[in-house]
């Protein structure tokens, strides 16, 4: 006598607040560490692209978009600053732009963490 077992496909559980915060911390930590090197930021943006589909329609989705946009805009302004720095005339502007980008990154990361801890969506 053989017993048959019916298998049902697994369902995705709803995202809990604790899970969303844990995922955001896992995605945010490498971005924050990106001040030291660029590899953690690249890894973080890849994680954000891979995980944002699971948060679609929830307040956590705005945090993914916030971090992805932070990465790309910071990269754009960093490249512009570096191009200015290699020229003698543009070097002061490039250094000023680097300072501005650093302050902007600190703001974006801090604002994202504060909204995350308050369980609030980001305004994007």
Structure in words:
This protein is mainly alpha-helical and 124 residues long. The protein has one domain (17-117). The protein has four helices and no strands. The protein has helices at 17-33, 38-51, 60-85, 91-117. α1 (17-33) runs parallel beside α3, α1 (17-33) packs antiparallel against α4 (91-117) and α3 (60-85) packs antiparallel against α4. The protein is elongated. The model has no long low-confidence stretch (mean pLDDT 78).
Give the SSE map.
Elements: H1 17-33, H2 38-51, H3 60-85, H4 91-117
Helix pairs in contact: 1-2, 1-3, 1-4, 2-3, 3-4
Please give a quick description of this structure.
The protein is mainly α. The protein has 4 helices and no strands.
Overall structural domain count = 1
Rg for CA atoms: 20 Å
SSE class: mainly alpha
Low-confidence stretches: none
Distance between the termini: 61 Å
- Give the overall pLDDT as a whole number: 78
Q: Give the helix proportion (percent range).
A: 55-70%
Helix tally equals 4
The best one-word shape is elongated
Write the H/E string, N to C. Answer: HHHH
| Strand residue content | under 5%
In total, how many beta strands?
0
The main β sheet shows up as: none
Please supply descriptive tags for the structure shown above.
mainly alpha, 68% helix, single chain, 124 residues
């Amino acid at each position: 006598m053989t017993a048959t077992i019916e298998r049902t496909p697994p369902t995705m559980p709803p995202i809990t607040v604790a899970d969303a915060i844990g995922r955001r911390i896992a995605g945010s930590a490498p971005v924050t560490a990106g001040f030291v090197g660029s590899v953690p930021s690249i890894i973080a943006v890849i994680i954000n692209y891979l995980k944002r589909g699971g948060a679609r329609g929830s307040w956590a989705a705005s945090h993914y978009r916030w971090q992805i946009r932070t990465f790309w805009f910071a990269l754009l302004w960093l490249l512009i600053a570096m191009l200015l720095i290699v020229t003698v005339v543009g070097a002061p502007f490039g250094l000023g732009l680097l300072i501005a980008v650093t302050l902007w990154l600190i703001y974006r990361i801090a604002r994202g963490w504060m909204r995350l801890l308050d369980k609030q969506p980001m305004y994007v």
